[in-house]
Amino acid sequence: MDMAQPEHVTAASTQPVLEVEDLRTVFLTDDGAVRAVDGVSFTVGPGETLGIVGESGSGKSVTALSLMRLLEEPARIIGGSVRFQGRDVLAMRPDELRGWRGDRAAMVFQDPMTGLNPVLRILRQVTEHMVSHGRQSPATARVRAVELLRRMGIAAPERAAASFPHQFSGGMRQRVMLAIGVANDPVLLIADEPTTALDVTIQAQILDLLRSLNEEFGTAIVLISHDLGVIGTVCRRVAVMYAGEIVEEAATEAVLTDPRHPYAWALVNAVPRLDSPAGARLTSIEGAPPNALDPPPGCRFAPRCPFKIARCDTDHPPLMEVAPGRRARCWVTADGRRLPAPPIPAQAAPRSAAPEERPLLEAEGLVKHFAVGRDGFFGASRIVHAVNGVDLRLRRGEALGIVGESGCGKSTLARLVTRLHEPTAGRIRFEGQDITHASPAEMRPLRPRMGMVFQDPYASLNPRMTVADALAEPLLAHRRAATRAEARERVLKLMATVGLKPEWASRFPHEFSGGQRQRISIARSLALQPDLVVADEPVSALDVNVQAQVLNLMLELRERLGLSYLFIAHDLAVVRAFCDRVAVMYLGRIVEQGPALDIFAQPLHPYTVALTSAVPEAGRERVILGGEPPSTLSLPTGCAFRGRCPVARPACEVPPPLAEIAPGRLVACHFPGSFSRPGHLS
Amino acid sequence: MLRYIATRLAAAVVMAVLASLVIFLISALVPGDPVLAQLGDIAASDPATVLEWRAKWGLDLPLWERYGIFLNGLAHGDLGISIATRRPVLEDIAQYAPATLELATVSFLLAIGVGIPLGIAAAVWRDSWVDSAARIVSLLGVSSPTFWLAFIMLAIFYGWLGWAPGPGRIDPIAFPPEGPTGLFLIDAALAGDWEGWHDAAAHLVLPAVVLAAATIGLITRTTRAAMLDSLGQDYVRVARAKGLRAQVIVLRHALPNALVPVVTLGGLAYANLLAGAVMTETVFSWPGLGRYTFRSAAALDFPAIIGITMVVSATYLLVNLAVDLSYAALDPRVRR
Q1: Does A128 sit within 8 Å of B235, measured CB to CB?
Q2: pLDDT tens, position by position, A204-233
Q3: Is Membrane tagged as a keyword (chain A) (predicted)?
């Protein structure tokens, strides 16, 4: 079982690894059978890579679980067939299934933080199925486990094997999950959103690893993701799922450049790109996926389709060959025609916030440290250095983006400037008024002027309050409405502003979709007519199409109401689409700051270069940044980035100041611009 | 880890002393007077007798001085003299404690031995007949009043069926096993007296079941809930995707993660069984601490009550320490 010579290379390799035909999976609910997967067919050959893309609820994850027969009640496979190297998976007895799973076919799941058992050592979790499937003896399994961990890019694999999962970061855990997945040299690896929970530079590392597993060992890969860019970096072919069906299947490159199903078209065009024109609105389609209990008789996408013809409402289209090697489920493109490019959106007039005397928000030398317990009873208390000296100025009407990976301090910064946290050091001024150490009573009159939108629209709305009550609450609390009737009137106006129907006012949060809930959150943040809206990852929990809707809404509100935004996100393209200026944070400091378009067109700090090049977009040359950000418990000396920096030199032992090297462009690097990505897109 | 244990033990001593202070203050505040309880109405009507009696027991001293004397005694391993039995409290406790310790420990082992497997089975075969049976067992155990259950069990298994021996730790005409521990099962086994062992064991069955009933219910429900949570975790799905056998998934992957709340409950339950066997001990004429406590309280025998408090709080603190240490053993995230 040498790793260099996996056995399947010698196996009969003409037979497809996976043949799925007309797979149907339902969820049995009190209201009837919800058709989660409704007639899905595809084939994966030996060593092939297939991506499955779709928004949440499209059935892509259920498809993956169905393939492995890992579904749990109330889900049930009610039809179709799954053949693995000719064997009927759906007919396997429990013991056959057990012998096949984790051996010939393996699966890697989305969340590496919860996928590893917290009470078992890594070694055991990597070796147990090698031993239980009879592939290795306990002794050889141990050797192989360490070898696998090394191959997955884990430093000091022997020590890692003896550790417990909580001692690792998310990226490291996903490497362990991959080691577990490939431990028995599977013929097929199914990866369900393997990088969704990870930061962009770590995502790039894991995707690179997946690709190399496919190339080196010939493992066939089915990669499930909501992100076409992610699929594009690993998979040659992609199947686009909508409402339980595959609506388009083709080479990934073809779908990205020339989608033939209107839903794929919407998916491709809803995502902001780092090279899309400045200030453009995103293309979003209205509506929501159909009710899976009772899908429409015709094309399931017809109610939302911008291109629909008469036939679409009545006849359900089959998956038809629309061009050599590509299939789509669409009457419009059935004759081989292409879909038009999205309308060039009205380009917003370049916003030039006049340099005012007094910025709306100003911070100088902001520092926030958190004490987190002690090393033992008498030990020194440990300190998380969340924010380590940040200066920023936000002008009226401006949108400033803060980007960085998790743990870089961007959310803490948001909580500092809104004084949800009190800074350890530094100054904060809001309209010139020093609020650094303002008491809650002193902050109270200012609160209405700062709206906040949080990442999770599920968690930030009280499930027991109707929308009308949730929106009326701030109005009444701050005496902006004298009576309930007046508050209600204002609430209805607010709802109209963010595109919610007035008849929904008496609904509870769980009756809304994620995008609608985020609209409610935005409405709530706008209720008191704030000057500043601090949005912390407002769209990162949303599907791309909904993300486009919400971003467009926020852009529109900004123009209409003259809002200033502090916009915190990890998605660079989203920030670029939304913000005038961007600050890039690393380990609690701003390493680069400047106009959004300039920063992404020509990043000057090596970290910004790596960050922008790690974005999974087709045609983008990647710089895979090794390593992970150091711990915030003990900050490195000198430049915080030098440990990962490809161009670090001895001079970097002196911390570089954030210096203005061109008008409006600030970089904290001794050698700005000395590192640029290879195939730089012009 | 050693330092952690030492710190915890030191804290335990402080807690026990604080508990004794609280009891002392309560003893000064309660309206009852041990003089009246001990001497009876007639003797207590003679002021000279009362004064003499008070002086004899040191009750004429100020509270803080009595407390000082108590602490001094405590430091020398002396809990004072019981007003009711006129014997050293420590001796009394040493006499009654083994009976309770034996009963509580057997009950506890019964409770976890039945409750944990039943809870696991109920979670694994959720909504099956096993789950329903477990639900009924827990409901009956938790909701049956102890005295009622004790009488019913005695009436059925002793009075009617004659399967179980009557109240008491051992057959009244037999000699109790002699031995160093006072725990009959252990002493009899050490002496090789298997007839005596069998007798003691038979006498333990009914009180142990009665005492364990509520705890079985609690442990079953807690185990079931924790297992359901654990079985729904991603790592269990990963384990299934690895093709592991069901018993490995349940026992190796899900169970250790589910045990933390069960251990918390188990620790509390054990301490409760030790301290709270009054009802069961009374019905089964069990010569244990529960009955001793009851008698001492009725007699307003404060030295005995304080002595018992010290022993009970020490037990609680030790059990809690054991619980904390087992967290660290169960969950590496707790370890430093």
Answers
A1: no
A2: 888 988 998 899 888 999 999 988 888 988
A3: yes
